[in-house]
Amino acid sequence: MTHVEDELNSQPECWNRAAAQAAEHAPALPAPGERVAVIGCGTSYFMAQAIAVLREAAGRGETDAFAASEFPHGRAYDRVVALTRSGTTTEVLDLLEKLKGTTRTTAVTADPATPVMSLADEPVVLDYADERSVVQTRFATTALTLLRAHLGLHTGAVVEDARTALTTPLPEGLVDCSQFTFLGRGWTVGLANEAGLKMREAALAWTEAYPAMEYRHGPISVTTRGTATWMFGTAPDGLARQVRGTGGLWVGGTLDPLAELVRAQRLAVAVAAARGLDPDRPRHLTRSVILAP
Protein backbone atom coordinates (compact mmCIF):
# COMPACT_ATOMS: atom_id res chain seq x y z
CA MET A 1 0.00 0.00 0.00
CA THR A 2 1.30 3.46 -0.90
CA HIS A 3 1.57 6.26 1.66
CA VAL A 4 -1.27 8.13 -0.01
CA GLU A 5 -3.54 5.07 0.14
CA ASP A 6 -2.78 4.54 3.82
CA GLU A 7 -3.43 8.19 4.59
CA LEU A 8 -6.66 8.54 2.65
CA ASN A 9 -8.00 5.41 4.36
CA SER A 10 -7.41 7.00 7.78
CA GLN A 11 -9.68 9.98 7.14
CA PRO A 12 -12.77 8.88 9.11
CA GLU A 13 -10.70 8.63 12.31
CA CYS A 14 -9.00 11.96 11.64
CA TRP A 15 -12.36 13.65 11.08
CA ASN A 16 -13.69 12.29 14.35
CA ARG A 17 -10.70 13.74 16.20
CA ALA A 18 -11.01 17.12 14.50
CA ALA A 19 -14.72 17.36 15.28
CA ALA A 20 -14.08 16.47 18.91
CA GLN A 21 -11.43 19.20 19.18
CA ALA A 22 -13.42 21.97 17.51
CA ALA A 23 -14.56 23.48 20.81
CA GLU A 24 -11.01 23.35 22.20
CA HIS A 25 -9.68 25.28 19.19
CA ALA A 26 -12.60 27.72 19.01
CA PRO A 27 -10.69 30.69 20.53
CA ALA A 28 -8.21 30.55 17.64
CA LEU A 29 -10.87 30.20 14.94
CA PRO A 30 -13.00 32.98 13.40
CA ALA A 31 -15.65 34.42 15.70
CA PRO A 32 -19.13 35.31 14.44
CA GLY A 33 -19.16 38.69 12.75
CA GLU A 34 -15.44 38.83 11.97
CA ARG A 35 -14.46 39.72 8.41
CA VAL A 36 -12.18 36.85 7.45
CA ALA A 37 -9.87 35.81 4.65
CA VAL A 38 -8.82 32.16 4.34
CA ILE A 39 -5.61 31.57 2.41
CA GLY A 40 -3.55 28.65 1.22
CA CYS A 41 -1.65 27.19 -1.72
CA GLY A 42 -2.66 24.32 -3.97
CA THR A 43 -4.91 21.92 -2.09
CA SER A 44 -5.10 24.29 0.88
CA TYR A 45 -6.35 27.06 -1.40
CA PHE A 46 -9.19 24.85 -2.61
CA MET A 47 -10.11 23.98 0.98
CA ALA A 48 -10.08 27.73 1.68
CA GLN A 49 -12.62 28.21 -1.11
CA ALA A 50 -14.94 25.66 0.49
CA ILE A 51 -14.53 27.11 3.99
CA ALA A 52 -15.21 30.66 2.82
CA VAL A 53 -18.52 29.74 1.20
CA LEU A 54 -19.61 27.59 4.15
CA ARG A 55 -18.89 30.30 6.72
CA GLU A 56 -20.56 33.11 4.83
CA ALA A 57 -23.59 30.96 3.97
CA ALA A 58 -23.92 30.10 7.67
CA GLY A 59 -24.28 33.82 8.46
CA ARG A 60 -21.03 34.04 10.41
CA GLY A 61 -19.58 36.97 8.50
CA GLU A 62 -18.07 38.04 5.20
CA THR A 63 -15.43 35.49 4.21
CA ASP A 64 -13.08 35.44 1.22
CA ALA A 65 -10.58 32.88 -0.06
CA PHE A 66 -7.29 33.64 -1.78
CA ALA A 67 -4.17 31.91 -2.97
CA ALA A 68 -1.54 33.14 -0.53
CA SER A 69 0.43 34.79 -3.32
CA GLU A 70 -2.64 36.75 -4.45
CA PHE A 71 -3.79 38.22 -1.14
CA PRO A 72 -5.21 41.76 -1.66
CA HIS A 73 -3.26 43.89 0.77
CA GLY A 74 -5.53 46.86 0.19
CA ARG A 75 -8.44 45.14 1.97
CA ALA A 76 -9.03 45.14 5.71
CA TYR A 77 -9.81 41.89 7.53
CA ASP A 78 -10.36 41.12 11.20
CA ARG A 79 -8.60 37.79 10.82
CA VAL A 80 -6.64 35.83 8.22
CA VAL A 81 -6.70 32.03 8.49
CA ALA A 82 -3.79 30.27 6.79
CA LEU A 83 -4.00 26.58 5.89
CA THR A 84 -0.54 25.03 5.53
CA ARG A 85 0.22 21.36 6.02
CA SER A 86 3.99 21.77 6.04
CA GLY A 87 4.21 25.11 7.83
CA THR A 88 7.07 26.04 5.49
CA THR A 89 5.43 27.19 2.25
CA THR A 90 7.12 30.37 1.07
CA GLU A 91 4.02 32.36 0.04
CA VAL A 92 2.19 31.60 3.30
CA LEU A 93 5.14 32.56 5.50
CA ASP A 94 5.76 35.77 3.53
CA LEU A 95 2.13 36.82 3.93
CA LEU A 96 1.97 36.06 7.65
CA GLU A 97 5.15 38.05 8.20
CA LYS A 98 3.68 41.06 6.38
CA LEU A 99 0.46 40.85 8.41
CA LYS A 100 2.15 40.49 11.79
CA GLY A 101 1.12 43.25 14.17
CA THR A 102 -1.61 44.58 11.86
CA THR A 103 -4.10 41.72 11.31
CA ARG A 104 -4.94 38.83 13.62
CA THR A 105 -3.76 35.55 12.07
CA THR A 106 -4.49 31.87 12.65
CA ALA A 107 -2.48 29.06 11.07
CA VAL A 108 -3.86 25.52 10.77
CA THR A 109 -0.87 23.23 10.26
CA ALA A 110 0.29 19.64 10.68
CA ASP A 111 3.83 20.26 11.89
CA PRO A 112 4.49 22.17 15.13
CA ALA A 113 8.24 22.35 14.50
CA THR A 114 8.04 24.83 11.62
CA PRO A 115 8.32 28.62 11.14
CA VAL A 116 4.57 29.14 10.85
CA MET A 117 4.22 28.56 14.60
CA SER A 118 5.98 31.82 15.44
CA LEU A 119 4.60 33.86 12.55
CA ALA A 120 0.91 33.19 13.24
CA ASP A 121 -0.74 34.75 16.29
CA GLU A 122 -2.74 31.59 16.99
CA PRO A 123 -1.53 28.26 15.59
CA VAL A 124 -3.80 25.21 15.47
CA VAL A 125 -1.89 21.94 15.13
CA LEU A 126 -3.45 18.84 13.56
CA ASP A 127 -0.33 16.69 13.81
CA TYR A 128 -2.31 13.43 13.76
CA ALA A 129 -3.37 14.34 10.21
CA ASP A 130 0.18 14.93 8.94
CA GLU A 131 1.27 12.96 5.90
CA ARG A 132 4.35 11.33 4.44
CA SER A 133 2.98 11.65 0.92
CA VAL A 134 3.49 14.62 -1.34
CA VAL A 135 -0.12 14.36 -2.51
CA GLN A 136 -2.40 15.79 0.20
CA THR A 137 -5.47 13.90 1.32
CA ARG A 138 -6.21 13.64 5.04
CA PHE A 139 -4.71 16.91 6.26
CA ALA A 140 -6.82 18.95 3.87
CA THR A 141 -10.08 17.19 4.65
CA THR A 142 -9.36 17.17 8.38
CA ALA A 143 -8.73 20.93 8.39
CA LEU A 144 -12.00 21.42 6.53
CA THR A 145 -13.77 19.15 9.01
CA LEU A 146 -12.44 21.22 11.92
CA LEU A 147 -13.90 24.36 10.38
CA ARG A 148 -17.20 22.64 9.51
CA ALA A 149 -17.50 21.48 13.11
CA HIS A 150 -16.64 24.98 14.33
CA LEU A 151 -19.57 26.24 12.24
CA GLY A 152 -21.88 23.54 13.60
CA LEU A 153 -22.10 21.88 10.17
CA HIS A 154 -20.41 18.53 10.90
CA THR A 155 -22.35 15.41 11.87
CA GLY A 156 -21.52 11.77 12.44
CA ALA A 157 -23.26 10.98 9.17
CA VAL A 158 -20.37 12.65 7.31
CA VAL A 159 -17.92 10.16 8.84
CA GLU A 160 -20.18 7.24 8.00
CA ASP A 161 -20.36 8.49 4.42
CA ALA A 162 -16.56 8.58 4.35
CA ARG A 163 -16.44 4.94 5.45
CA THR A 164 -18.89 4.12 2.66
CA ALA A 165 -16.70 6.00 0.18
CA LEU A 166 -13.73 3.87 1.21
CA THR A 167 -15.51 0.53 0.83
CA THR A 168 -17.88 0.94 -2.11
CA PRO A 169 -16.51 0.00 -5.56
CA LEU A 170 -15.95 2.85 -7.98
CA PRO A 171 -18.42 3.07 -10.88
CA GLU A 172 -17.74 0.55 -13.62
CA GLY A 173 -15.62 1.94 -16.44
CA LEU A 174 -14.59 5.07 -14.54
CA VAL A 175 -10.91 4.16 -14.17
CA ASP A 176 -10.63 3.63 -17.92
CA CYS A 177 -11.90 7.08 -18.87
CA SER A 178 -9.51 9.38 -20.73
CA GLN A 179 -10.74 12.68 -19.30
CA PHE A 180 -12.47 13.71 -16.06
CA THR A 181 -14.56 16.79 -15.28
CA PHE A 182 -15.53 17.61 -11.70
CA LEU A 183 -18.43 19.94 -10.93
CA GLY A 184 -19.61 21.70 -7.78
CA ARG A 185 -22.06 24.30 -6.50
CA GLY A 186 -21.44 26.72 -3.65
CA TRP A 187 -18.90 25.30 -1.21
CA THR A 188 -18.39 22.17 -3.31
CA VAL A 189 -16.78 24.12 -6.16
CA GLY A 190 -13.63 24.07 -4.02
CA LEU A 191 -13.96 20.30 -3.63
CA ALA A 192 -14.36 19.88 -7.39
CA ASN A 193 -11.20 21.92 -7.91
CA GLU A 194 -9.38 19.72 -5.42
CA ALA A 195 -10.59 16.50 -7.05
CA GLY A 196 -9.20 17.68 -10.36
CA LEU A 197 -5.87 18.54 -8.74
CA LYS A 198 -5.63 15.08 -7.14
CA MET A 199 -6.10 13.42 -10.51
CA ARG A 200 -3.44 15.59 -12.12
CA GLU A 201 -0.93 15.12 -9.31
CA ALA A 202 -1.28 11.38 -8.74
CA ALA A 203 -2.31 10.08 -12.17
CA LEU A 204 -1.19 12.74 -14.68
CA ALA A 205 -4.80 12.72 -15.87
CA TRP A 206 -6.56 15.26 -18.07
CA THR A 207 -8.99 16.84 -15.62
CA GLU A 208 -11.06 20.00 -15.42
CA ALA A 209 -13.30 21.53 -12.73
CA TYR A 210 -16.12 24.05 -12.97
CA PRO A 211 -19.15 25.45 -11.16
CA ALA A 212 -21.89 23.14 -12.38
CA MET A 213 -23.82 25.68 -14.43
CA GLU A 214 -20.64 27.11 -16.01
CA TYR A 215 -19.93 23.65 -17.40
CA ARG A 216 -22.85 24.14 -19.81
CA HIS A 217 -21.30 27.37 -21.13
CA GLY A 218 -18.70 25.66 -23.29
CA PRO A 219 -16.81 22.96 -21.35
CA ILE A 220 -19.44 20.29 -21.99
CA SER A 221 -18.16 20.29 -25.58
CA VAL A 222 -15.21 18.07 -24.54
CA THR A 223 -17.54 15.46 -23.03
CA THR A 224 -18.00 12.33 -25.13
CA ARG A 225 -17.76 8.55 -24.97
CA GLY A 226 -14.81 7.62 -22.78
CA THR A 227 -14.96 10.77 -20.60
CA ALA A 228 -16.51 11.21 -17.15
CA THR A 229 -18.36 14.06 -15.42
CA TRP A 230 -18.59 13.85 -11.62
CA MET A 231 -20.95 16.06 -9.61
CA PHE A 232 -20.21 17.05 -5.99
CA GLY A 233 -23.55 17.69 -4.33
CA THR A 234 -26.94 18.19 -5.98
CA ALA A 235 -26.82 18.65 -9.74
CA PRO A 236 -28.83 21.31 -11.58
CA ASP A 237 -32.01 19.93 -13.09
CA GLY A 238 -31.44 18.23 -16.41
CA LEU A 239 -27.64 18.25 -16.30
CA ALA A 240 -27.24 14.50 -15.81
CA ARG A 241 -29.47 13.86 -18.82
CA GLN A 242 -27.45 16.27 -20.96
CA VAL A 243 -24.17 14.60 -20.02
CA ARG A 244 -25.52 11.14 -20.76
CA GLY A 245 -26.70 12.48 -24.11
CA THR A 246 -23.07 13.20 -25.06
CA GLY A 247 -22.13 9.57 -24.50
CA GLY A 248 -20.05 10.48 -21.46
CA LEU A 249 -20.19 8.74 -18.09
CA TRP A 250 -22.20 10.66 -15.45
CA VAL A 251 -21.21 10.17 -11.78
CA GLY A 252 -23.77 11.66 -9.41
CA GLY A 253 -22.77 12.50 -5.87
CA THR A 254 -24.80 10.39 -3.46
CA LEU A 255 -22.72 10.96 -0.31
CA ASP A 256 -21.80 14.04 1.67
CA PRO A 257 -19.62 16.06 -0.74
CA LEU A 258 -16.54 15.72 1.49
CA ALA A 259 -16.97 11.94 1.38
CA GLU A 260 -17.32 12.21 -2.40
CA LEU A 261 -13.87 13.81 -2.39
CA VAL A 262 -12.56 10.68 -0.67
CA ARG A 263 -13.99 8.64 -3.56
CA ALA A 264 -12.19 10.95 -5.99
CA GLN A 265 -8.94 10.44 -4.07
CA ARG A 266 -9.42 6.69 -4.47
CA LEU A 267 -10.01 7.21 -8.18
CA ALA A 268 -6.73 9.12 -8.50
CA VAL A 269 -4.83 6.21 -6.91
CA ALA A 270 -6.66 3.65 -9.06
CA VAL A 271 -5.97 5.54 -12.30
CA ALA A 272 -2.31 5.94 -11.30
CA ALA A 273 -2.05 2.18 -10.76
CA ALA A 274 -3.74 1.45 -14.09
CA ARG A 275 -1.21 3.70 -15.83
CA GLY A 276 1.80 2.20 -14.03
CA LEU A 277 2.45 5.35 -11.98
CA ASP A 278 3.50 5.67 -8.34
CA PRO A 279 1.22 8.23 -6.63
CA ASP A 280 3.83 8.64 -3.87
CA ARG A 281 6.24 10.08 -6.43
CA PRO A 282 4.28 12.68 -8.42
CA ARG A 283 6.18 14.29 -11.26
CA HIS A 284 7.91 17.62 -10.54
CA LEU A 285 6.32 17.97 -7.09
CA THR A 286 7.64 18.28 -3.53
CA ARG A 287 5.87 18.14 -0.17
CA SER A 288 6.34 21.88 0.36
CA VAL A 289 7.06 24.66 -2.09
CA ILE A 290 10.02 26.64 -0.75
CA LEU A 291 11.35 29.32 -3.07
CA ALA A 292 15.04 30.17 -2.76
CA PRO A 293 15.81 33.89 -2.35
TrEMBL record:
Transmembrane feature ranges: none
The residue ranges of the SIS domain are 25-163
The Gene Ontology biological process annotation of the record reads: carbohydrate derivative metabolic process
Question: Any keyword Repeat?
Answer: yes
What is a single molecular function from GO for this protein? carbohydrate derivative binding
UniProt entry tagged with the keyword Electron transport:
no
Where would one find the signal peptide in this protein?
none
**PROSITE patterns noted in UniProt:** SIS (PS51464)
Q: Name the keywords, alphabetized.
A: Repeat
PANTHER family annotated for this entry?
GLUCOSAMINE--FRUCTOSE-6-PHOSPHATE AMINOTRANSFERASE, ISOMERIZING (PTHR10937), GLUCOSAMINE-6-PHOSPHATE DEAMINASE (PTHR10937:SF4)
Please report the name of this protein according to its UniProt entry: Fructoselysine-6-P-deglycase FrlB-like protein
The source organism is Streptomyces griseomycini
